């Protein structure tokens, strides 16, 4: 009898213990509205996926938070019982660090930044490799030799992406240019449309972009100009014109972090050096017009016909894209677009022969690759 | 030449929502009521239009979408009318509130339509021609009809208009609601034609440009056509000329606003408020002067 009671008590205790460990509340602070079809939408999709994948996890989110309100939002979330708080915009960096100091027992995770603390890690899913692959396709498909690019802000992230894209374009078509228009906004469909119109008027016959709406794709399709998805599956906006694109899946990062918090690997004391820089290898980013469609079948024939020279051998652009995509998805990728020798567009050697750029260099990149045309603020001469 | 035509086409395409919204604001301002809520009414119109056009999965009714957008804008304006005409509250404060409430409500109600593509969308042409036709119609209304004269007198001197037996309140209500309906139509152009899809915040400040445009064109519907095309051209050129002229694109982006300030300053120098209706922004109370 006594042993049974003991067993019962132990079982209840165990149950409590488990329940306590499983009782994980992750909260997300978003910079934009969850329906922006861009950055915030992707984070929210991942939040929902994580909630499904991890038993015992509850989540909460606050959207359209101004960077200046980060700390106040954290206060509210901590009061509401959040154990892990994700701040999903670069602008949230300093206030997240402040919040991490204020709440040493809460785990913070900040996207795309570089400041960490014992209870604050950083994470990023980066596209630069995928951009190169899209560049290859753009280089193969352009007839005018002019590729348009609608870009949000001249920050290192975009310079890295535009440069990788331009390196890809030029690998196929050494005389082609990538013509950049800055709209100085993450979200402004009106500016995005007029910038696209301007690019097409200038003779660009294929366009790529980095901003948070599908406007570029919709505008280009009206003018029968092919384009690339950015961030989310945008194939549905123009099934005849979306060639491929770069897609994100933040859920692999969120699930990894939250599982490690749940099983005690991550504590509020050991995150000082935890930085996720996840790429295609970790499946955080994908190549595709939409999930599951790396290349729109409509463009396959043209890409198979187009050829380029790789190590003295002539191969089809399609095969090259697929070969490289396979490589960057493998456990130990051999290839990287930023492998030297690489000069910037002013002729200065930026990556010596045989060296790859480090994550730090990629994050601080201010120069742009040859072929990029247009004003680039803060460019070293 | 092709380049010029293309720029003109862009100016018309982008200028059309500006022109429609500007004409709406101009109409109610001519009757003496300022409505700064254009941005909010545009957002409501954009959403209402898109929701009706999209229906359940892209099979909605395009023909009903436009009236729905005008209805949404008109209803929002009716609220502004009630607060400022009947309750005689401050028009500027009420309009500001309306712009924020409109954006917020549209954002909230629009969640389920966020980012959906609208494949079956109307062409731009009829809207562009319609907007220009509307400007001509308003010009005719103000200069050659009894109704136009009545609206103007209500905006210039409501007490005198009242003495003449005009129904000041009814005229002002009518102008405000019609102005709101036009703002809604401008929003529908964005979500049905220009984009075409709905996202929160898609009006991107165009409503405010429209409000500024009214002052810029001196409350004249004909000049509004050229004003809207001019603004549209500058907006396009900030991208077209980016990196292709020595002039920073920010100059083009800020030029419309600088011009508005300039026009205001010039009229200020002349010791008058430009062509602003005399009783603009003032609630009308019978027996008060």
Automatic annotation (TrEMBL), chain A:
This entry carries the following GO cellular component terms, namely:
plasma membrane
**Pfam assignment, any one:** Bmp
Record key words, sorted: Signal
Organism domain of life: Bacteria
Which Gene3D superfamilies does UniProt cross-reference here? 3.40.50.2300
Domain ABC transporter substrate-binding protein PnrA-like per the UniProt entry, residue ranges: 25-267
The keyword Signal belongs to this UniProt entry's keyword annotation = yes
Q: Where is the signal peptide?
A: 1-21
What the entry lists under InterPro entries is as follows: ABC-Purine-Binding, Peripla_BP_I, PnrA-like
Protein's name according to its UniProt entry: Purine-binding protein
Automatic annotation (TrEMBL), chain B:
Which Pfam families does this UniProt record tie to the protein?
A: BPD_transp_2 (PF02653)
Keywords, A to Z, come to: Cell membrane, Membrane, Transmembrane, Transmembrane helix
Give the top-rank taxon of the lineage listed in the UniProt record for this protein. Answer: Bacteria
What terms describe the molecular function in GO for this protein? Answer: transmembrane transporter activity
One Gene Ontology cellular component term attached to this UniProt record is: plasma membrane
Q: Where is the signal peptide?
A: none
**Topology of this chain in the membrane:** Multi-pass membrane protein
Q: Which InterPro entries match?
A: ABC_transp_permease
What's the protein here called? Branched-chain amino acid transport system / permease component
